[in-house]
């Protein structure tokens, strides 16, 4: 009996040891599984890229975007400045319709020349959402006023980065934040630093008398202008001049009487012809018109104030107003140097 009791106790001990061993192994397996899961989550989090858009919304991508749809024409241009034109799978139809943009971007990308990059837009800013979906984009870059498009794309789980280009700070921030999302952050920072240094150099050349400049909108809309706080106002200030329009408005429509009252030293046009001003009987007696101080930014591609090329706009305006280069060729050489940096490629400004 004693012997059987000892054997029974010994058997129970073995059973208990077995159970303990089982639970120990189970705990180790669970710990390893949890550890691997946490490591996987940590690895996934480490590979994520984050950036904040014009709305203050944080966009989070699992990795750098490789397929990008841009629905705001000026940012197509900036994608090429970032050296990321190859990531474009969709662009606005206007890129092909705008002869200046089409000509110069064709020099940067044979797909533009062949018009082979998809255009998921109808015209203006109307977007064919189904076509955007078919492009399997990792990221869509959309103008802030395209509210319906933004809502539709985000409702379909397509990451949307919203741009405004409303002032210098936004142009810089949007360039750098898109750079983060597409793996071009360092290049974006280099561009911003370059432009800032150029602006500081212009600012060091202080004029005792600031010339006043009236800006006439594109497509011959001479009586539409850009007020204080606008992008054109920014370029005028960078040039060392002052905006003749004193109104704190983005795009006011004004009368001939107002322009006579402001009496600008110069009239500057973008995507318009000087004859759009000279043929107006209402402005025939305006001193700037009489003195042939009406200028048009040509070619328009290089002077788009919605991008960091507001620097080129400012330099051209300054040269017209203050003749800070000895000859026109010296000025063109200076512009060419900036263009070569912005596109990292020789592209004639003629």
UniProtKB/TrEMBL annotation:
Query: Organism's domain of life?
Result: Bacteria
Its source organism is: Sphingobacterium populi
Which protein, by its recorded name, is this?
Answer: ABC transporter substrate-binding protein
Residue span, Fe/B12 periplasmic-binding domain: 67-325
Spell out the Pfam families in the cross-references: Peripla_BP_2 (PF01497)
């Amino acid at each position: 009996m004693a012997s059987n009791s000892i054997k029974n106790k010994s058997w129970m001990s073995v059973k208990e040891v077995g159970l303990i061993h089982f639970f120990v192994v189970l705990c180790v397996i669970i710990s390893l599984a949890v550890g691997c899961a946490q490591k996987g989550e940590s690895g996934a989090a480490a590979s994520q890229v984050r950036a904040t858009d014009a709305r203050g919304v944080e966009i989070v991508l699992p990795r750098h975007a490789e397929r990008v749809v841009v629905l705001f024409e000026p940012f197509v241009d900036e994608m090429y400045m970032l050296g990321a034109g190859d990531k474009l799978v969709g662009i606005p139809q206007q890129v092909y319709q705008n002869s200046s943009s089409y000509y110069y971007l064709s020099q940067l990308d044979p797909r533009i020349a062949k018009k082979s990059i998809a255009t998921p837009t109808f015209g203006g800013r109307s977007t064919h959402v189904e076509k955007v979906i078919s492009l399997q984009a990792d990221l869509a870059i959309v103008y802030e006023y395209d509210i319906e498009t933004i809502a539709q794309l985000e409702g379909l789980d397509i990451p949307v980065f919203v741009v405004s280009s409303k002032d210098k700070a936004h142009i810089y921030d949007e360039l750098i934040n898109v750079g983060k999302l597409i793996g071009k952050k360092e290049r974006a920072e280099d561009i911003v630093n370059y432009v800032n240094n150029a602006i500081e150099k212009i600012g060091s050349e202080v004029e005792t008398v600031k010339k006043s400049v009236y800006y006439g909108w594109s497509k011959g809309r001479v009586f539409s202008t850009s007020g204080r706080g606008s992008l054109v106002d920014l370029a005028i200030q960078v040039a060392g001049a002052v905006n003749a329009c004193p109104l704190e408005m983005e795009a006011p429509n004004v009368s001939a009487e107002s322009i006579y009252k402001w009496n600008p030293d110069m009239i500057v046009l973008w995507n318009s012809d000087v004859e759009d001003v000279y043929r107006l009987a209402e402005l025939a007696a305006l001193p700037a018109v009489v003195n042939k101080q009406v200028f048009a930014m040509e070619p328009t591609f290089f002077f788009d104030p919605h991008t960091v090329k507001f620097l080129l706009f400012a330099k051209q305006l300054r040269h017209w107003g203050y003749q800070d280069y000895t000859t026109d060729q010296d000025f063109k050489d200076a512009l060419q140097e900036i263009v070569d940096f912005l596109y990292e490629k020789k592209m004639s400004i003629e």
